[in-house]
């Protein structure tokens, strides 16, 4: 199992990862480092543990917000799906009604044609 060095707040941490996951882990480390640097600029040096905890909480908050947005979008799409199904059902009813009316008109025309043929 390969190990990758990830630097956060100028400290290097060696982390094991699966083969092929090195680039992904490196990107995740950069995101955490970015959050830690964001905290450093606003609150100063609080110690690695506290900075990492606060960065983790910030990332978790962002994740929760994105999950809520995703849930709302899924509900919105489900609503569109229901509208589509309702419209399809209405279309089917209209088609059925039109077919019935056309069949009735055809029968009436046949009756009239028969009447005219006997006249």
Gist of the model:
By secondary structure, this protein is mostly helical. The protein contains two helices and two strands, in the order ββαα. It has one domain.
- SSE string, helix = H, strand = E? EEHH
Radius of gyration: 34 Å
Q: How many strands, which pairing sense, and closed or not: the largest β-sheet?
A: 2 strands, antiparallel
Helix coverage percent: over 70%
Instruction: Tell me the strand percentage band.
Output: 5-15%
- Shape type: rod-shaped
Count of the domains:
1
Low-confidence stretches: none
Instruction: Name the strands of the widest sheet in spatial order.
Output: 1-2
Describe what this molecule looks like in 3D.
With 119 residues, the chain is mainly α. It contains two helices and two strands, in the order ββαα. Strand 1 (3-8) and strand 2 (11-16) form a beta hairpin. Helix 1 (22-43) packs across helix 2. The model has no long low-confidence stretch (mean pLDDT 86).
Blueprint (SSEs and pairs):
Elements: E1 3-8, E2 11-16, H1 22-43, H2 48-118
What tags apply to this protein structure?
119 residues, mainly alpha, two-stranded antiparallel ribbon, 78% helix
